[in-house]
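About this split. The held-out portion is used to measure sequence recovery: a designer receives only the structure tokens and must propose an amino acid at every position. Recovery is the fraction of positions where the proposal matches the reference. Here is one held-out target exactly as it appears in the evaluation file.
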């Protein structure tokens, strides 16, 4: 298994990050039991706040899966104090997952789009972008809905040269 952050899961709200952390914690416990103690390394980082032991832990041992919000991800990748975690992301990231894709519109959508482009440009491996949304499109035929979702994904994930590298799941 790679020694770095292979997947970053981004949520628009800290409440969503926190609820998913609880779900992943339960999964990790079951995984560890089934795999005779093998760990399922993931971590939550959603508040810049003051320097804490948790932040030091993430620097010392970056997780394989990082749950965060887009502003915290931006801070992790731009400020000087988190060099090890930043390098762990750029060296190993293969998946960027954006939950509630429909919330990334306007200026916020532009900010997130630029963040994605920066990560893809600096990543050492090809990065697959995945977007989820339960409420993005609810009118028109299934084909029209898929076309609209693909248009949003293309704009946000900026992968016109190979549209199959970006996937959007419409639930």
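Reference sequence for scoring:
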């Amino acid at each position: 298994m790679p020694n770095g952050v292979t997947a970053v899961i981004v949520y628009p709200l800290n409440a969503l990050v926190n609820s998913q952390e609880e779900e992943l914690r339960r999964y990790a416990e079951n995984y560890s039991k089934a795999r005779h103690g093998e760990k399922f390394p993931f971590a939550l980082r959603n508040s810049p706040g003051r320097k804490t032991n948790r932040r030091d832990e993430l620097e010392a041992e970056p997780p394989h899966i990082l749950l965060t919000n887009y502003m915290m991800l931006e801070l992790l990748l731009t400020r000087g104090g988190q060099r090890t975690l930043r390098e762990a992301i750029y060296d190993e990231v293969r998946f960027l997952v954006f939950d509630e894709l429909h919330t990334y519109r306007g200026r916020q959508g532009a900010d997130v789009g630029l963040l994605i482009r920066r990560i893809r440009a600096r990543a050492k491996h090809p990065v697959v972008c995945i977007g989820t949304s339960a409420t993005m499109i609810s009118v028109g035929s299934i084909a029209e809905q898929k076309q609209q979702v693909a248009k949003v994904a293309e704009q946000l994930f900026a992968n016109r040269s190979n549209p199959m590298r970006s996937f959007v799941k419409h639930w």
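Annotator remark: Residues 162-171 have pLDDT under 50 and may be disordered.
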